[in-house]
Amino acid sequence: MPNRLTILVTALFASSVLSTAMWGQSQPAQPNGSSMPGMNMPEHDVSNMKDMPGMNKDKDKDADKDSDSDAGAHAMHSMEGHMNMGPHMKMTALRQPKPGDAGRAHQIVEGARKASEKYTDYHTALTDGFEIFHPEVRQKMYHFTNRSYAREAFVRFNPEHPTSLLYEKHGEDYKLIGVMYTAPKRLTEDQLDERVPLSVAQWHEHVNFCAPPQGQRKEMLNPHPQFGLRGSITTQEACDAAGGTFRPVIFNWMVHVYPFEKDQASIWSVERQHGDAD
Question: Model-level pTM?
Fold first, then answer.
């Protein structure tokens, strides 16, 4: 995995990408856009983050020529390092099991296994429309995202259409380890429970994000930054005082499933999906 310095360097550009992403969420759908009428594109379609406005090299003269890769890499490492996020991370609470929860969870695992087992060869995933998020950046876990499935997840849950396939890199090959499902950030925990029972799984989302003001992005290079997904700022008031732009929630709800594991604790492992990126 990249060392701490690499992760800190990539932080320089993260706020630009994420601020642009959040700006896009507040805009109406364009006639030729990918959003459904009255509905924004799923916030966690991370596969196209590097293509967003604001990451254009000709427009951002201060950005390094590799800024799009660096920004995307920081976002991914931030999402991998969930356990370090503290107040920037929100998880659903585990509930008491209800009749039928175990059966529903089993069906989801079967659907995830059925959907993903044919992608043991990652070339097949690429052929079927999955795109690798920043393959040039070394990561603990690589997301192969299907934009069509991401859009579908915004309106309905289909266990056989995961937003992303999860792989580990082994030499020049990729080993399939699981899938990721997403859900709109507007959903309540009761609605998430209808998709995946909360007595079995814990969804998570990224919260309390303060983007630094223009000219202060280098502050995110600090070992203990104020801004970003690992920043000390966690409230609207503190962000306003620092001149930043606050967003209570960024990206969608997400949950990982490891359907090839043998026991329930491993299949729905929170620790595995929240492993440190350091």
Answer: 0.69
